[in-house]
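The passage that follows is intended for readers who have already worked through the single-chain material. We present the inputs for a multi-component assembly, then the predicted structure in tokenized form, and finally a short commentary. You are encouraged to pause after the input and sketch how you expect the pieces to fit together before reading on.
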Amino acid sequence: MSQSRKAVALISGGLDSMLAAKTIMDQGIHVEGINFFTGFCVEGHTHAIRKQDSDKVKRNNALWVAEQLGIKLHIIDIIDEYKQVLLNPKHGYGANLNPCLDCKIFMVNKAKQWMQQNDFDFIITGEVVGQRPMSQRKMTMPIVAAESGADDLLVRPLSAQNLPATLPEREGWITRAKLFGFSGRSRKPQMTLASQLGFTDYAQPAGGCCFLTDASYSKKLVDLWQARGKRDYELDDVMLLKVGRHIRPSKNFKLIIAREDGEAQFMSGYKKQFISMNCASHRGPLVLIDGAPDENDLQLAARITARYGQGRDAEQVDVTIRDHNGNERNTTVKPLHGDDIPETWFV
Amino acid sequence: MRHTTLNARRLLCPLPVIRTQDKIKTLDTGDVLTVECTDPGVMHDIPAWCRVNGHTVLETRTENGEYIVVVAVG
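Having made your guess, compare it with the prediction:
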């Protein structure tokens, strides 16, 4: 065993990657963490936006794990490159728009590039055979190793004994007998190991960390592509799909209606990019209009905006319409009754 | 020793952390970086990132609804 060997660990912030890194560190290997930001990460964002979540701890779990392990963490922005993974996944999607297998291959490949650039020796992941239905199956784990180009430099310490020996094991950099043979969806072995290693606090095991696994979010993304006539997105699109109530009366425009003050505050940063509305005569939410509405569309949007304010039962509500340049005008509308908003308009 | 300012307004974590990390790569030990943000999450995340990567947070403060983190490059 060599003290000089170095490994880069993919740190998601969950339990498995923490245990995998710790297992290798305990064999005397220098480990540093790497964490990728796709734009679809659940981590932090909704807590940061939504005021009702303000009592929750806003820690970044990947950073927190790095602190617990006492290792450096490198956070990599892969927002632009990730588009090709999401838009054209070679291995297809999971239950929603989650390209889990392609995502894992992509991230391991990025880790391999980082490893080479920084003169590290091998890669660690917290993958467990049979843990996930798409990316962590017995038959897909060799695909990740092969298609990422990591090949036998990819070590999965928690499942290593179920897999062929990797180069670090064969060369004696690490001891195979000290690795594990976990498999299946049960979390008990990981929890037992966590307890043995003294970890009592960790993020929800195997929790969803990606908005693309969420049916509602995926539906909004498909709606956005259909409305624009092309499968593409920018970071702002990704962010705005995480907030508000989305109502699309027609293909050429939709409303994004803030549900609470935290969302309104976040959305107000987009006033220069969207037409926006709010009730002038009553309290009500901030509304962004995405698309290219005509005057009739704006009147309908104003009626919907009024419906979500405190004047919803009033005969008339004044609504302020604001263009991209901040020019404002008021219109007086009768709030749309809730029953008059078809279910199909809700994205 | 240089003093540099980074505008990370309107970015949500972890993007302000990533921008801080990328900026620090261009600086030298002892340089001071002031990061200006609007996401309150930076008050926790940038100090955490600094702790694991060997940099020192000199100050965190709120100013006109914004969040300011001052970092000495380690």
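Commentary: The first helix of chain B runs from residue 15 to 24. The beta strands of chain B are 3-8, 32-37, 56-63, 66-72. How closely did your sketch match?
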